[in-house]
Design a protein that fits this description.
Number of helices: 13
Structural class: alpha+beta
Strand content: 15-25%
Oligomer: single chain
Distance between the termini: 17 Å
CATH class of one domain: Alpha Beta
Radius of gyration: 20 Å
CATH topology of one domain: Peroxisomal Thiolase, Chain A, domain 1
CATH architecture of one domain: 3-Layer(aba) Sandwich
Amino acid sequence: MFQKAFIPYKGYYCTPFCRWQGAFANENSLVLGAETAKRWFATKSYDMSEFDYTFFGITVGQHHWFYGGTWVNSMIGLQIPAINIMQACSTGTTCVYNAALAIEHDQMKSPICLTTDRLSNGPHTIWPNPNGPGGEVISENWAMDNFNSDPVTGLPMIQTAENAAKKAGLTREQADELALRRYEQYLDSMKDDRAFQKRYMFPVEVKISKKKTVVVDADEGIMPTTREGLASLRPVLPGGIHTFGAQTHPADGNAVILVTTRERAAAMSGNSAPVIQVISYGFARVEKAHMPMAPVPAARMALERAGLSIKDVSVIKTHNPFAANDLYFCKEFGVDFNSFNNYGSSLVFGHPQAPTVPRLIIEGIEEAVMKGGGYVLITGCAAGDTGAALVLKVN
């Protein structure tokens, strides 16, 4: 349980998420993340000398990513060290956890959690194969090959969702109903000229040419969803409960969350701003090829460390690449799927890996502020049948 780690109110942003092969498809995600962060910092009155470290989250290789966070810092204008963090879908959770840990032990003053990824045009890697006949090599399509085969089990991620669904007794009808509800919740974030999204979303500038720049200020590639449309889709796997409408899509984007002490958070936020505290962290790994089950024990650990039950939580946000994630969560915690993931979730707005959970964290904070405060639980699964969770408190 943390005592000293705080997030300044509005000390965060998330860009729009673009469905892969969209507006961000040709941008180096490190450069795009750095340029966007630099523009965002320019809108703030922060003392930039206060920032002393960057936890840089990225999962898909890009040109020059060997230098990673230090290169990003230099592009922003910060001459501070950084560490690259990669934990698949839990990358953002792990960045915030490590930043909070550093604050808790007085090792840092104000670390930056900057996460960015581009699933579009992923690298096609080649590895030496000394035993390959005729000089053949081992090749890998970074994104698709890993989505489709866990080296531990040889199974694709969609199969882990079907395994979890079968074990929990989940149905196609439930999956479709949940997918429709998640789309309706996303539409709530679009009401009143996207009022909710505009509380945290920061536009991205994409250079089309030397003379032309396009501003992307809203999510790109959201698929309209209806009950009839979902019912017409075939399962991805024969006999399964998941269609393409009941799972997420790869995306591109970036996000920043600042973590610091109570005093610095108050100074950055303003005296009358809400107080946002990082309370606890949880983690888990479940049985092989049952990835969507992992958020549950991770959430239980985070709640237990915080001395809370699920009934004490005001806002729940889950990374839900498959409908089975939320359906299993509901069954284990005894909650209604209509009661959480308000205003959006990765099932609908997409999954650019590293920035996915930061967006959920930010949306959770903003929803809690709108409710007048409370505890926020963020949880989700990650490759390798793992899960991670955070509990925040908003006053």
